[in-house]
Write a structure and sequence with these properties.
It contains six helices and no strands. By secondary structure, the protein is mainly α. It is elongated, with a radius of gyration of 25 Å.
Amino acid sequence: MNFEDMQKAWQSHDAGAKVLIDADVLLNEVRRNQQNFRATILWRDAREIGVAAIMAWLFLHWAVRDRLWPLYLVALACIGVGAFMVVDRLLQRRKQPAANDALKACVEGSLSQVNHQIWLLKNVLWWYLLPLATALAIFTGVCVWHSRHVALVVAGGCVYLLLVVLVYWGIYRLNQCAVRKGLEPRRQELETLLASLK
């Protein structure tokens, strides 16, 4: 086949032709994607809640052992982050579509879940990073205040503060990258699918 034959074949192609997709096959694919997404979020939340619980226990242990009240604040911040995630998870569980919902309801439910995850990750500074950073800053400030070697503790505190800022900035950027590369394209796909269903 030469170039002219390919050009004629291309021009004779009907541009208005539509591809028909079996609704049951599409529904099963949407449900499968929704289940995979839920499982990914569930295991991420379980890890985060588990780490928050372990860190809260460690900071409580150290607070009781060393009699340092700022460690109670750090433990409380860890408990707060874990509790926020548990409550958020329970609230989102109520909004999940039923297993026998129609395709449109299933897509709307998936879109709602993705939008909520985007909101969580875009606001990670307020509900996750800031409470922990505030408690750690108070702990560091109290340690510097009570230290006998102020210059050494201030230098160590500055290095510690720099490390905390870099780690927190990295965590924030990582979450924003996950939104941009993983969740935004997924939301666009679901919005496109929802628009085509209408």
